[in-house]
């Protein structure tokens, strides 16, 4: 039974070999891979360097000649004069790539001059060419006038273009029904022999209705350099310049068109060298040079090519079977390179071209023939990986739709089914526009140019739009849609991937939150944040006008007494009544907002300091002093008012408001029930502490007093430190250790955050370089502030730091958060692409929170995902967190990203992460952030668990 099984295997293998060899022979004989062979020939042929033929000169009918001799066509007496001048220097042969098939009616005597000149010269070659008449379906031969043919040597100028439109070959003889005419270049090499061939012909014998054009003696042309390589002399110069004429002595001359827009031009294998087509006259010069120097290349016949291809593949099979070696990819590539080398060697030494396409394809086909079991295993593994990828797509909440090249839906994941309220089997094969239903609303996607591009697939780069989507059940959802096109290796579009995120609840919540964030819940007035935005807008409306903005900062005096005596509900009623009176005083044109507590702000843009501002302040004081009635009680209150002006008291709205508040507190301190204007003296008491902290932070940055600590990122499998993250701390002389959240916002406010970030970057890179020099190569991870990332000079800063510290770019990781991305996605993407080109890794920190999605990972060059510690902390307690972590790990793996878990604190967490293939951990379980010296000791003594 075993022998029978082995026999069947050998028989099956032999059958496959026979089929393979037959296929190779068929492909070689029928030239199926002709275009591929053309590409190989062009590459090999252009590697050959041929010296320029100094004996061939092109007399060019160029733009200079047109300026001298006038518009084309010229009198044939001009051409007669050219031939006579060439005769005067004993020119041996000249070819004119010009058809003189019609008499010159304007000057008949000129034809006789030209005929006489041709006869006197003795070796003038003129062209004949086949012409196919589409109306009569007849093939005719265009020849010079009989007056010329009696004296001239004739050669055909038929140029055969290959199937890809490139002129690689020449047929040395061709004719109607018989190859009777030599090529122009061949006639130029031996005019006497060409003349003899012509004299032997019987023109009468040419049939009246020729059947076809016959070619013979095929040869491949070894071009002597890129287009424009042959020496050229202007036609006009040869006519009028004796020195130019003398330079043609003992040269072979070819006359033809080179002027722009005149004559025929061809693509050749050497055209890509200077991106120019080759003129017909230069093509003939190459043919003549090839024949004169014996460089002719002979293409192997199809039968011989097929036999060589079969022999080559058979020889490889025999050698592999004899040696008993496996056919590996490197060996296969070596064999293919060897085949190409042999083809090039034969072409160089023997001037024979053997198309290697079929042999190379046969060699390539040996791999699946020999390694079919391994390929089956690979396909099985690929299927498993694809299953895992599908599982990752199904585990995320975002919707994913995949379409074909014609925008028909071919796949949707569970997230898309949930958003669309439908299933794949119900919409598969339908158009995307029909499924999304975005073109049914005037205010929907159809009115949005970017949305139209997403809907019709007209984008050449990723695009995103937010719009209303009508589901299959008729309900509407607000979604964010991103479309990316898929291209094959030939840049042909295969389809698209559309990612959808349902943001309906988020939008509704955002609208509610936005209203709550911009308005006070009690008084319905704009709140502090809304006021600041309105102030900035008001500033933009009055630039360079000389006007100012007046700020009134109003607070109730002794408001606490109302709350204490009557309760907080009475205090709330009083605040509403006060806001109503303030609105009645100033009207709708003035901005009125509640700053907080019992404080209100009014913005005027039409008040002058000397006149209207005091009057308005006094009017507010008098109005608020009037009695209020709350729950049947009469209540009397007063207010304190601080006044400041833009731009006199500051160049930003926040500064001017702060100084109005400073003036108000000064009034309140002096007893209240009055108003006062801001002055520099009134601000000293209230900003001294802030100024002191600012001064101390500036000094700490300047004197390099900030501390950079390092927390190891551990490979939990091998328990070695693979990376370190740099974390900055400030040891304040009075307040002790300050965390980044306590001083980084201040650094941003005073414009020191970029300088601080550069210090941390330089310190971190220097520490990593020191560890590298000591034999501990680790990647250092540095957090990047959003302001740094939005600075166009940030990549140059990184380059300078790497240069100064000596750290290799590949050892640096930059950590970014989503807050640094979502505000200006386009600008951040450009900066990250520039940083990525430096070979620096990009890590996305706190992944899993905020707005993380497939879209973000697809549009940015992210290398590393860091799972937020909020998921890892309860990993062993909450199944949902475990599922989220598992999904993130699977997503990162399928996208080819490194995944790092933050906040690892227990051995149980380590084991769970390892079980789900997350190998890089960071957290207190391994080490807290520590100084460089402690980090070095830790790495030196390997104290990790």
From TrEMBL:
Keywords (alphabetical) are: Membrane, Transmembrane, Transmembrane helix
Q: Which InterPro entries match?
A: Biofilm_reg_signaling, CHASE2, EAL_dom, EAL_sf, GGDEF_dom, Nucleotide_cyclase, PAS, PAS-like_dom_sf
Q: Which domain of life is it from?
A: Bacteria
Matching entries from Gene3D superfamilies are given as: 3.30.70.270, EAL domain, PAS domain
- TM spans (from-to): 12-29, 300-322, 329-347
**Keyword Membrane appears in the UniProt entry:** yes
Q: Which residues form the EAL domain?
A: 690-943
Residues forming the GGDEF domain are 547-680
Please give the name of this protein: PAS domain S-box-containing protein/diguanylate cyclase (GGDEF) domain-containing protein
Provenance organism: Nitrosomonas oligotropha
